[in-house]
Amino acid sequence: MKAITFDIAGRNGWCERTIAIHTLVIAGWTGRDTVAMEKHIRELEELGVKRPAYTPVFYRVAADRLSVAPTMQVTGEESSGEVEFVLVKDGGETYVGIASDHTDRQVETYGITVSKQMCDKPCSNTLWRLSDVAGHWDELLLRSYATIDGERVLYQEGKVTAMRAPQDLLDQFAQRGGRFVDGTAMLCGTLAAIGGIRPAERFEFVLEDPVLGRTLRHAYSIETLPVAG
């Protein structure tokens, strides 16, 4: 179990809420646009990752992997981040946040579930109520930046419409036997990388709400540990 104190930003102010996360789920292959999803599948195939047997897929990861820390350590130089919106359930209410499904790409070529477990899943310490954005959900924007060899570049950009809507994902999760109950967090899929998937020294990501004029953001630096053999 991982207890994280979040700022809940509402239409009329904010409050602190400590949420005990006991279930962390990574939803994969969640594309609403099958053409865009096929592009991401091909990206990973180029790295040796097998196609999924069905979509979407729901991978379980240790709850302790969810982190609001500004740094993370990884083994070797084959990992990378990807921006995703995250759903969190607590007190009977669903919240929306922003996270990175940082993944070891080398391990991913022989075991996707294991690769998801290899790295922390950085997230912002601020959440929105899903009910506050549900009416204009399709207007929300995802964006990420990667610092590579000292240069900050736009890494991903697009609307959340690239992925299945929250309720659709939760319905699919239930059909696979999942229970989105209090203490559950779910990362919900990503966008294709501009210029291809690659490692970085620093990763930044945002979720923008142009209707209410607000942004969720987080950034983390990556410390690469040596591989001794």
From TrEMBL:
MF terms in GO: catalytic activity
Top-level taxonomic group: Bacteria
A Pfam short name: DUF2848
UniProt name for this protein: DUF2848 domain-containing protein
Species per Swiss-Prot/TrEMBL record: Caballeronia choica
